[in-house]
Give the backbone structure.
Amino acid sequence: MGQIVPAPIEHYLASLTHVEDPVLRELARAAEDENLPLVDAETGALLRVLARAIGATRMLEIGTAIGYSGIWLAGALPANGMLITMEVKEDRARRARENFARAGLATRATVIVGHAERMLAKVSGPFDLIFQDGDKPDYVTMLDRLVALLRPGGLLVTDNVLWSGEIIPGFVTKPKHPAADTDAIAEYNRRITTHPELLTSIVPLRDGLAISVKRHP
């Protein structure tokens, strides 16, 4: 049984998610083999649904890894759309560019290498959707900048907000994550659920996904 959703429920949901893209299937296998911190297909499918639902044409992603979630996002874009995705590790960024090209999305995805908190000062909004899946201690420090880059009615989607259940004191007897990271996510959750410019709902999908819409003025 999973910490967030019982394993039989997760297996059932996974059985309903049909991944037709061979690149996505290959990257999912690579994630298992290399223990890479990628989202699962169910989360990827939700990202694509959300992007399509709001008619996103400009999106920003924090935490590219090897491009798995980025392919789900960029696949929702029109031909003239753009995803800007940020990755701190050069080797992963290189692999992501190769994977975007293999998925036929090279013209819709731009990978920026560097620490996202610094790189955010170099990009301009507005973005229709922002996916935050970077370093957890940076969630809080980047929040206000991400909100500023988001258009009214746009979505800020954040992964890992339930943190394997460790976000709840005492729920997990043997935590796997550093306490500082857990505290950072707890503070981030408090911020996004009380932020005057955001309306937030947290979905208990896999490791927890927060969906925040920026309020209109």
In short: The domain at 7-214 is CATH 3.40.50.150 (Rossmann fold).
